[in-house]
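Can't paste images in this forum, so I'm doing it all in text. The chain is below; anyone willing to post the predicted structure tokens underneath?
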Amino acid sequence: MPFLRAFIRTARMIRHIGALGAGLPPDDDVLLDAPDERLAPALVAAGGGEYGPAAKVLAHTREAAEWENRDRYVLRLAAFAASRTEWFESWQAASPHDPDLLLVKAELAVGRAFDSPARAELLRDVTPLILAAADADPGDPVPWRVALDHARGTNAPHAVFTEVWAEAVRRSPHHYGCHVAALRYLSAAWYGSHTECFDFAERAAKDALPGSLLQALPARAALAYLTTRAPQGIPRARLDAAADLAIGLSRTYGTADPWPAEVRNLLACVLIEMERWQDALEQFRLLGPYATSFPWDRLSDDPLGRFLELRDGARLEVAAALPLRGGPGGSDAH
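Text version of the structure:
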């Protein structure tokens, strides 16, 4: 009987796997961490040693109070500056007090410290850079997202975390980046627990504006729990509710929209961990060509390879669950 079941499962896969590829871009068309149309030219210019386009795009986000874009761009530009420093050094020499420069400088310093075995000591030296970035534009919440990461890395007690969190939400109560940083601090991997993490995420999602990425925060808590490999009793119903809320959010955005790409990647990973294969395959279709390093870099040193591997795995699992006759690969007609 086990042999017969395996044979039938294989036959189902063979019959349906081709049809289930509809709507999925070929492997070679999938992009990892593709920048949007505003950031891409800035990165190209920075690669050539020019800082002007990066300075301009960040200035626009500050002047227009586009805090979510600002946070994303700062993270990408700081990561780029870590490996390609010429353009950033030129920017520092030309405009050392530019609030956008100061913010990238603080993020760059925090990122470098986190990569060092002497993390806590190095991060303490970064404090003046974060304060300088915050003072340069008092209404900007992004320096306070950096400060939340800093608090996590310096083993700051909950009282300090609470003070920093209050400063962040005073500037932007629904800022996704600050909520993610707070969720990391509260996670079981750092200074909280899975229950505390879920409680925080669910409150934020409940208070979120329509279409806000904060509605995916419980799914992020679910991912932290599911990948711990030492579950601590979060009920399956709570995990399903987190996934369902994020699915509803994902469906409010168009197919192949780069804005919710990270959330959709996160959600696909959660659904795979929960063996909700059909739902996971739907997210891969909605993603189009936009793969993101997170969360796949938590599972592999080759995030794009892991993305493609699990995308194929979801197709196989869905195909294996379909009847031999009927479904995407055939008809019920005799």
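Residues 40-157 form one domain. The longest helix spans residues 303-321.
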